[in-house]
Specification:
heterodimer; A: about 240 residues; alpha/beta; Rossmann fold; six-stranded mixed sheet; four-stranded antiparallel sheet; B: 4 strands
């Protein structure tokens, strides 16, 4: 479970977050929807213990991210928006590297690699260097390495950006699977359809504020709109930056 | 395996696969010894030339006495080229001496006998031979003049109102001093060269590839990451140093430096001393390069800055070679300057005091520590924005 309470964040003169609060529960997919530049990435970085909040608190399974950032990172698997790979290392080495950084033993790592390469269908390129991988292959490697320590909480920042239809569908299947395992999945996107198709709950962020957190049905009721798309636009306050 | 070891190993393996990083670390340090060999042969060649000058002579048959005398002075008389002017202009020969039929007649008549030197004074390389040729001809002329005066009962010394002597302390010796000083300089540079690409790859490179944020999301503190990355960089610098040192140890004894009057030996003691002397340097180099990589916006600016920073250790080295210093505790404690001073002493076969070495190593380690601490402070999520 990931919880942000009144989180404030400034970068110099930019007031990026103006009191962001939301909760993402275990066994559920929480969508974070908002236009580009609304504060999604910053909120997720704070939730993962990468940035300290200026004010307010962020907790993961009850652990404060500022007090114990390393402990929080053990409980989280986060796929950031920019998830580059090392061109001279193989897919297997990427996953093993992150597994070791989490202090996993070699036999544990190879067992999980087996499992992950099965689930993510990456056997064919597991021992190839990642230079020249397709977007989909790259994303699979990037996801495998954040799941290798079997985190209870998973943050995916715009994971479908740049993917083709096949890749997007595979991604959705994976997210469903993680939910079925009872994990807490936070999924950010600026694509309304994706959020509508996947998420149990949606957090709408606009201009550094949470304008709504509700189930999809409640959101329609709250905004008085029949169509989900209209409900999103109403919650954000504008249709600019959405897709 | 500790997180430090995991990151250290990954950075080493990753960069060993980078042909550019590997060739920089292992091949660039060979340039120093190669240059040493090149300069040795250049100096030797120049000295041989001046010892046995080769002068092509046109019309040697018109002045057999002069030609024989030149031969006695160690000049190797050569057959002239077909077109002396063109040959000199094109730089095929440095000078050509031309004698004509009137030489013997003028000499017998007591008139100045004509000798022409075809030359191009604008050519720097030809200057020594030109000077030598003119000097020899002047000497020959004076000898004959003196004989004429003696025949007439005049003391030939009367015409020598002053006695000029040229004491050459010039370029040749400066070249040798530079040759000597280049050895520690190259080793200093090797410490920097070896780790350059690694330092960039593990800092600005991580940011540029978008691998920094995933890495930072692991439960490892930025301090440990920076330490491991600096250690990997230092390892490449040390490998470079080892290659350079080994190459010098092989090259120097196999070249007869005594032939050019240079006492350059690389006793095992000196090699070991250099390893001890430059080990802390490699650590400072790695710490400095990683810090520059951390604060650079991208790999391009990091490369530009590091190309400039390699001059930092070179300047003190050049100063030491131009103005030899006596080591003091203070000068030895100045990073890069201290090693240069102590390295020159070792090379000359002089003893160095352990205290001086400790002062240098201590100052270097302190600097490396401070630089690493600053880098650790700046490394982290703040590198992601901007």
């Amino acid at each position: 479970m990931i919880e942000l309470k009144n989180v404030e964040k400034r970068f110099g003169a930019v007031h990026a977050l103006r009191g962001v609060s939301f909760a993402a529960h275990d066994g559920a997919i929480t969508g974070v929807l908002g236009p580009n530049g609304a504060g999604k990435t910053t909120s997720l970085r704070i939730a993962a213990g990468l940035l300290p909040p200026d004010d307010g608190t962020a907790t993961v399974d009850g652990t404060d991210t500022s007090a114990d950032p390393l402990g929080v990172r053990r409980a989280i698997g986060a796929l950031p928006h920019s998830h580059g790979l090392y061109a001279r290392m193989t897919a297997r080495e990427h996953v093993a590297y992150f597994g070791r950084l989490h202090g996993l033993a070699s036999d544990v790592i190879s067992a999980r690699l087996d499992h992950l390469s099965e689930v993510l269908e990456m056997r064919d390129f597991l021992d190839r260097r990642t230079e020249g991988f397709s977007q989909g292959q790259k994303l699979k490697v990037a996801i495998a390495r954040v799941l290798v320590h079997e985190p209870k909480n998973i943050i995916l920042d715009e994971p479908t950006a740049g993917l083709d239809v096949k890749g997007t569908r595979a991604m959705r299947a994976l997210v469903q699977r993680l939910k079925a395992d009872g994990r807490c999945v936070v999924f950010s996107s600026h694509v309304m359809q994706e959020v509508a198709a996947l998420c149990d709950e949606v957090v709408v962020i606009a201009a550094g504020r949470v304008t709504a957190q509700a189930t999809l049905e409640d959101l329609k009721a709250m905004t008085g709109k029949e169509q989900l798309e209209d409900a999103f636009v109403a919650a954000v306050g504008t249709d600019e930056g959405l897709a | 395996m500790s997180a430090f070891a995991v990151v250290f190993k990954k950075e080493c393996v990753d960069n060993l696969r980078d042909r550019r990083a590997l060739s920089t670390a292992l091949l660039m340090p060979l340039l120093g010894p190669l240059m040493l060999v090149g300069v040795f042969f250049a100096i030797k060649d120049a000295e041989e030339k001046s010892r046995a000058p080769q002068i092509p002579v046109v019309g040697a048959e018109h002045a057999p006495e002069l030609v024989r005398w030149l031969g006695q002075q160690g000049v190797e008389i050569q057959a002239p080229p077909a077109d002396p002017e063109a040959a000199v202009r094109d730089g095929k020969v440095d000078v050509v001496l031309r004698l004509d039929a009137s030489f013997g007649e003028a000499l017998r008549a007591g008139a100045p006998a004509p000798v022409a030197i075809v030359c191009d004074p604008s050519r720097h390389n030809a200057a020594p031979l030109l000077g030598r040729t003119e000097g020899l001809l002047r000497q020959y002329g004076q000898t004959i003049g003196a004989l004429r005066l003696m025949v007439r009962g005049v003391d030939p010394l009367l015409v020598n109102a002053i006695a000029v002597e040229r004491i050459d302390v010039g370029s040749k010796d400066a070249k040798k001093a530079l040759l000597l000083a280049s050895l520690p300089l190259f080793l200093l540079m090797a410490c920097f060269l070896g780790g350059t690409y690694v330092a960039i790859d593990v800092t600005a490179g991580e940011r540029e590839r978008g691998t920094l944020e995933p890495l930072l999301l692991n439960p490892v503190s930025p301090r440990v990451l920076v330490l491991a990355k600096t250690a990997a960089t230092a390892l490449f610098g040390l490998a470079s140093l080892a290659v350079g040192l080994a190459a010098f140890a092989v090259v120097v004894p196999s070249i007869p430096f005594e032939q050019i009057g240079l006492d350059l030996r690389l006793a095992p003691r000196v090699v070991v001393g250099y390893a001890a002397l430059f080990l802390p340097t490699a650590l400072v180099a790695a710490a400095l390069q990683v810090l520059v990589g951390v604060i650079s916006k991208n790999t391009k600016t990091a490369q530009a800055s590091l190309g400039f920073i390699i001059l930092v250790p070179v300047l003190p080295g050049v100063i030491v070679s131009l103005f030899p210093q006596q080591p003091s505790l203070l000068s030895c404690a100045v990073p890069f300057l201290g090693e240069s001073i102590l390295a020159m002493r070792l090379l000359r076969g002089e003893e160095i005091e352990v205290l001086h070495w400790l002062a240098n190593a201590g100052a270097q380690m302190l600097l490396a520590g401070v630089l690493t601490m600053v880098a650790a402070r700046l490394f982290g999520a703040r590198m992601l924005s901007g």
